[in-house]
Amino acid sequence: MTKKFTAGALGVVLLALLGAGAFLTTMSGQEAGRPTILMGDPAKGELTFSFLDKDGKPVDKLVLQNNVENQVTLVNKGQIPHELRSDLFRLFQFDVEIAGVGEIETVGIRDMDLEPGKQVSFIVKPTLSSKVLDEKNGQVEFEVGCFIPGHYVGGMKGTIVVTK
Ligand SMILES: [Cu+2]
Fold first, then answer.
1. Fewer Cβ close by (within 10 Å): the C or N end of the chain?
2. CATH number at residue 89
3. Is the full-model pTM beyond 0.70?
4. How many angstroms separate the alpha carbon of residue 137 from the centre of ligand 1?
């Protein structure tokens, strides 16, 4: 209960800071050279996640590299709030990055709530053991979902792949 409240409170702070919209972005909301997660893209539907690779090309799954600080942009292109939640962010170093502020350590945060039209960047560094990666042919998958009531069951889920 306490953890949830703390995460929620920080979410509000982050959204307030993000209101300035200081990011340099393309039409899709993508920042140059970074993979992007889109929530509620009108082209796909309100209850969807979709992914762009670092070149802006649509991909089925978001790919992150193991033992690397992956910088990712998260955009809510929908009409209603959504959240991004994954065990990936609970297991590994995960920080939010705000233009003009820098990285904010987010120990204990498991999900990010984002209002419509807002975006945020985050940094995640998966540190899977090479033994596990090798046995799984160099790829380990994690699910992402939006657990605002009705959204996940409505189809709002996707996959992040961690590769060697
Ligand atoms: Cu949602």
1. N
2. 2.60.40.420
3. yes
4. 32
